[in-house]
Fold these 3 entries.
Entry 1:
Amino acid sequence: MGQPLIYLYEQMKEEQVETIRQTAPDYIIIDAKRESPELIEDDIEIMLGWDKELGQRLLDSDTSRLAWVQSISAGVDTYDLERFAEKGILLSNASGIHSISISEHVLGVLLAEFRGIRTSIINQANKQWTRDNVSYRQLSMQKMLIVGTGHIGQQLAVFAQGLGIQTYGVNTSGHVTNGFIECYSHKNMSRIVKEMDIVVNILPLTDDTYQMYNERMFLAMKPGTVFINVGRGPSINTNDLVQALNTGQLSFAALDVFEEEPLPENSPLWSMENVLITPHISGLTPQFKEKLLNIFIPNLRQFLKDKSLAKNEIALHQGY
């Protein structure tokens, strides 16, 4: 067994690599996007980012030293969490990095819809000066249900309250969280959702959240509800969503994630006037790598100290 390796699948700047090297001087640092050195894969102990093919080989290896993976995303539904648990591999996510970006995205699409901006963009492209097809509503005092009250949900609640929106939350137990008038448990969501004007999904994908937005859930909502998904696409039954939009049960949907990505060209969502499609961009964040290092470096120091993590560790049996 050779010198342990830190495998950087996410390309970092030279000075960032040097920071990692100084923090872990006993490790060999492999920048996978810049170099293709010969290496003994089983010596990889830490991976920043997830190389699916290499990662699968390490999970299948009986002699792999892989002990910790730092994900670059908040959601970890693409990882084989059961195998991670079986092999005792730690997993941490990038929760918190995307909070401001996703919160701004949600408010941006809401303002575009409520103030008629989306329609005006279309009118401008057609060189039409008209108010006839511009609808507008007041966003202030609307009731917003934020489904997922973690870092992103809390940040969104703070921003939304600045616009006079009334914010309510849904989480696993219904525990009270800062920024919300009231919070409810998942099991009570179908009862409270009928009182809300806007529903925003920010949940990770787990067995419990898979296709939780189905015909039953949409019918439980107030007719004309606005729905936004910046969580995970498979949390929605797309056919049921299309039906709810066609019947007016939902007045508008802003969708950044989908069951299948890229969204197929034959999807009816493309041509629906009450749908805004964005190509999974809500989490794009300036200075992303600097913010990622603010999670990775404290975790690296803690890992070197006692093989534990300082922040953002995933409970593998829960999926978040």
Note: The two ends are 33 Å apart (CA to CA).
Entry 2:
Amino acid sequence: MTAPTFDVITTAEASEVAAGGDLDLAVTGRLETLLRRELRLKPPALVFDASAVTFCGARVLTVLLNTTADARRLGVPFALAGRRRALLRPITALGLDRALPVQWSTAEALAWLALVPRLS
């Protein structure tokens, strides 16, 4: 088991919550609190970077789905970054690809977020 880590990186462009290690049921409360805190700050955009995640439990996906809904309600663009098997496999297995699209990197997530309003 790899210990979970969380870092928040804030720039003028976005807040990025970078996670690493095994994200299981034991850390969902911490992750949810962290993402909610960032949303309350209403950054220009919020990116969850899972490029260093080695395991992603189903409850973490619920947190990410709730964050997606909360971000939309608050008008904060939100995206996921880090196309790793640990994140993609459960998303794909549960059919959540459309609700939780994952970009390769934070830079690509920010570029995708810039395009979304034009596609709507």
Note: The radius of gyration is 13 Å.
Entry 3:
Amino acid sequence: MVRYVLESHSMKVTGPSGPSSSQGARPAKAAGGFSVPSSSAGAPAGATASAASVGGVAGVSALMALQGVEDATERRRRAIRRGSGLLDRLDELKLALLGGEAGEGALERLGRGLREERPIDADPALNGLLAQIDLRAAVELAKADLRRTAA
């Protein structure tokens, strides 16, 4: 088991010249006015750096994990947006067919929308409605395919 011991140094910030230590450690000057206190006693600098890097990696990993988690509200919003988009593509297709066009562009967009992954929501009524929209879009794509093969 690895155990880290942290020594507390009371530091006091005095302004633009950098921190000063009340225990008498002299800061080592670096470029740009930044100063780091010298570590005369306590843990070696390598152990301190590795402990800090482990903490940094753990913090980044936790942040990335939180970003990857999708909450129920966002999943529901995406499902509704997808269903609404499919309904819009179906309307485009309807208008194209009523206008005497084949509606190939609308069919292509409808097919792309249907191939998108549909998020599953906790609400069974919403899932049922989205499944009906998907079915209607699939029927329209199948009808268009039949018209193409018959011609």
Note: Confidence is low (pLDDT under 50) at residues 1-11.
